[in-house]
Design the sequence.
């Protein structure tokens, strides 16, 4: 089995768990904190068909929206963090100004090593994108607040932009940009 | 030499076997959370009110609940209870190929001790060359013909019984736009 596939499998487990946990914990936390009447059922066939029933339309919309937001934030915050860290780390190697700024903000320790790979960022961004598609389609169908849909859209666009930026950094390592280097 | 060859040959064969399985697993790691999250979305339902201490419900109603779940052509399902005790079911029929589609949409419970009559009246706003109907207890009923002509469906609910209502859509031609479907459920008092 190829190393890439092994690594992809290993890296996909955590965001997959977090995606389900973010939604489920979000729903349960709201039900408990607002003391909402609920029921767990299994009225559709097939695997992973557990359903949560709430007694009124307003609570359903509220719980669905906030749990969607919690799922998006749980996936989005680490993704954005990884992208920013990788970008700053790579920038410190090319730009002395960035090092000066980092020293000024006393975050040198934070960027002295980089264990985040492009593959990791790619997998997390993919999970964020899948979640955003689900949330946006919910928002279009009126099952989630519009602002939650917009937030997830912005977050996924930002992470796609970050992913492209990271890809450029990675390709620059393999094929350095000639205009930036002077060999003569 | 032979041992090394055998080892590398084994490695080669095992990678050929395990690689597609690993690819499938990787795909499942993306698909399973997506399906789970979609199914975890809360649904509005008239929750059972148990009031009797001996565990016997004292409710004497006809309860109409949404089954929920996902379907390729049916989305945004909602069911409302009107002030007069009747219900309204709403859904969006999305664009589709010419085919026959069905989905369990409602669960109807007659909690009373007498037979009750229930009438379904459902149509789309515009006729779309689709036959729309219901299946209740393996019996098919037509709600709307392909030309847009609608029919009422009246059924009798046995006392203390539960029914699953399926919505069927048979499109003779491919439909390239979404349409709103609304069905009134009138409970005879």
Sequence:
């Amino acid at each position: 089995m190829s190393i890439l596939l092994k690594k992809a499998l290993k890296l996909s487990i955590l965001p997959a768990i977090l995606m389900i946990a973010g939604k489920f914990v979000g729903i349960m936390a709201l039900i408990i904190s607002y003391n909402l009447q609920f029921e767990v059922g299994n009225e559709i066939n097939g695997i992973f068909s557990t359903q949560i029933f709430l007694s009124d339309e307003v609570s359903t919309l509220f719980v669905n929206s906030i749990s969607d937001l919690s799922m998006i934030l749980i996936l989005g915050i680490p993704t954005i963090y990884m992208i920013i860290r990788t970008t700053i780390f790579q920038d410190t190697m090319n730009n002395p100004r960035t090092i000066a700024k980092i020293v000024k903000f006393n975050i040198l320790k934070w960027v002295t090593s980089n264990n985040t790979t492009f593959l990791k960022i790619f997998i997390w961004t993919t999970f964020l994108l899948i979640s955003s598609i689900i949330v946006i389609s919910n928002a279009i169908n009126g099952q989630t607040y519009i602002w939650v849909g917009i937030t997830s859209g912005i977050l996924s666009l930002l992470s796609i932009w970050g992913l492209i930026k990271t890809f450029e950094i990675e390709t620059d390592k393999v094929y350095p940009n000639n205009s930036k280097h002077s060999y003569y | 030499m032979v041992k090394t060859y055998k080892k590398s040959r084994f490695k080669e064969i095992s990678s050929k076997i395990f690689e597609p399985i690993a690819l499938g697993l990787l795909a499942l790691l993306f698909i399973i959370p997506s399906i789970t999250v979609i199914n975890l979305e809360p649904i509005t339902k008239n929750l059972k009110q148990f009031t009797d201490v001996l565990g016997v419900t004292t409710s004497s109603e006809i309860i109409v609940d949404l089954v929920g779940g996902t379907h390729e052509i049916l989305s945004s399902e909602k069911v409302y209870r009107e002030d007069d005790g009747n219900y309204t079911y709403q859904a969006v029929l999305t664009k589709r190929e010419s085919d026959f589609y069905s989905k369990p949409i409602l669960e109807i419970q007659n909690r009373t001790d007498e037979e009750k009559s229930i009438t379904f009246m459902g149509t789309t706003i515009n006729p779309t060359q689709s036959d729309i109907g219901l299946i209740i207890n393996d019996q098919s009923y037509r709600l709307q013909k392909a030309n847009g002509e609608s029919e009422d469906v009246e059924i009798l609910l046995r006392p203390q019984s539960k029914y699953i209502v399926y919505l069927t859509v048979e499109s003779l031609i491919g439909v390239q736009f979404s349409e709103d479907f609304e069905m009134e459920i009138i409970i005879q008092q």
